[in-house]
Design a protein that fits this description.
The chain is of the alpha+beta class and 562 residues long. The protein folds into four domains: 10-93, Gyrase A, domain 2, CATH 3.30.1360; 104-229, Cyclophilin-like (Cyclophilin), CATH 2.40.100; 252-415, no CATH class; 423-528, Cyclophilin, CATH 2.40.100.10. The chain is 15% helix and 30% strand. It has seven helices and 37 strands.
Amino acid sequence: MDSIDDKPVTRTSSEIATQLMGDTAIICSLSQRQASLTERVQTLSSIASNLRTTSLPGICDVVVSPDRITVIYDPLVIHCVDTFVASVKKAVTQQHSPVTAGSLYEVPVCYGNDTGADLDTVCRHHGINARTLIDLHTKPKYLVTAIGFVPGFPYLAGLPKKLETPRLSTPRRQVPAGSVGIGGSQTGVYPFPTPGGWHLIGQTDMKFFDQNSSSPALLQPGDNVRFHKTKRVNTPPDQSLATTHKCGTTKNISVLEPGMMTTVQDLGRSGFRSSGVPYSGAADRVSAILANSIVGNPDHAAVLEYTLLGPSLRFEADTVIAVVGTEHDSIPSLRPIHINRGDIIEIGHASRGCRGYLAVAGGVCVPPVLNSSSTYLPATFGGFGGRPLRAGDQLSIGKPLVAPTSFTWSVHNELIAFPSNPCTLRILPEFLGSTRRLPIPDTPFSVTAQSDRMGIRLCGTLPQAPPTMTSRAVLPGTVQLPPDGNPIILLCDAQTIGGYPVLGHVISADLPRAAQLRPGDSVCFTETNLAEAHRLLRSQHDLLATVQRGIGSKLGPAEKTS
């Protein structure tokens, strides 16, 4: 059991100080001030590299940010946090790999208003001409301090003070891929078309992210970048996979109506957060696993996730499906449903719950990207061409090995995290050293319609202005506080690095319930402690395993399905 009490836990050694972050991570920061930002980042990057290659069990990923590394662990593997922290500290202090300078990358940039919509605006803001701006921007050797925001996006330090420019007051809805921007005292490159609030001054055709590589991000913290002017650049390559996949089977599903935000998801990507790649995967993991279990699939099989409105589908072969996570008048949930070839299933509006999961015996087949079938919408990769389903799409399904032997049973809904109203989410507060940053509010917040897989956006301003902070790793469950004071609960598609202040972290056991919040629902936060957070997660895991064993008694070889 955890030996952690309600107080923040900070441990120090001659090299690092460690601090808890939520119920799935610890923060390691240098206890001695380094001579320069470059030395600090390169030291942290070396420590992170050592931790990634250690045989220490339970580590899921290590993320570098300008002043710390964040070690993400699996609480179901780590049964004593004290022991784990001590092991991490030992692994760090025993490293013998020297701290070395990173690689230098030369990046061609076509500057101008045709490729950088804000070049004139930045020039006017600083009272300079375009030639001076370009000379200033191409002169430094920039340091990569972090990778995040979107996969492969480099945060580059070293921008001349004469070019420091406040971010846009209203971010663009879409920034073209390859755009070179300035945000505050940093510069960077957008690898994907994505919303963004930085001033755009040019474009490059250099590829900063390769989804087909085991190390997908071109740059890593500690590397250096130097920009140089070029007269023209090619159109950056399309990062998405726009092809379908037959998965060696003739069984298909025809999408008649796509529903709302229907995507292919599995249990997500692990091990790539250091390249800026979030977990993605099912927002409500428990419902997705349970849906797969009912039809005889392994936990990680790909399912369809939809929001509030389910799809209409025609099945081109006999199969078995299950719907979990939402309730509907049109179709039963939490039970196996036999489907005949030619059947049309119209799921329709959810009467309860927000995100539903439709599992098909054999699983939905799409090309894996970075070891996962999940769709990551902000960077348009994974799943079915990196996008939500559309009418006319054809999905392949795999060959099931087992299937229900009867269709008269159902699963009790005790595992489904339908939120009450108001919904109380348990939270671990954010600490800085031994001082709590912000008190946990005792007033309710309202879920807004702007919520999505990146985050649950709440309405209700905090009474205390949030402090500023350096960009650092964030996780699903992190509660961010943007300038307007309305909290955002980050979900599975959220960025890996964030610069907003943090109120605290919703515990892992409550994230499925957070994913089921609907617009207009009321949310309250209540403080808990790490030991309780881990106990609740293990209890949830054990209950799911018990239900799966019961379902297993209802399954048999697929060819004998009745």
